[in-house]
Amino acid sequence: WEGGGDMAAGGAGDAEGLWSSGAGELILLGLAPSAPSCPHGPALLFVKTSQGKERGRRFYACSACRDRKDCNFFQWEDEKVSETRLAAREEYNRTHQPPFTHRQNVERYKSFVLLPLSKRRFCQECQRLLLPAEWEKHSDHQFLCDITSAQLQSPSQLLYPLENKKTNAQYLFADRSCQFLLDLITDLGFRRVLSVGTPRLHEVIQSKASQEDFRIRSLLLDIDFRYSQFYSEDEFCHYNMFNHHFFGGEAARETCRKFLCQDNGERVIMVTDPPFGGLVEALSSSFKKLMAMWKDTEKEGHNNQELPMLWIFPYFFESRILEFFPSFSMLDYQVDYDNHALYKHGKTGRRQSPVRIFTNLSPSMVVLPVEEGYRFCTVCQRYVSSGNQHCEICNSCTSKDGRRWKHCVLCKKCVKPSWFHCNNCNCCALQNHICEKTDAGCFVCGKAGHKRSTCPSLS
Ligand code: SAH
Ligand code: ZN
Ligand code: ZN
Ligand code: ZN
Ligand code: ZN
Question: Which Gene Ontology molecular-function terms are recorded (predicted)?
Answer without folding.
Answer: nucleic acid binding; rRNA (adenine-N6-)-methyltransferase activity; zinc ion binding
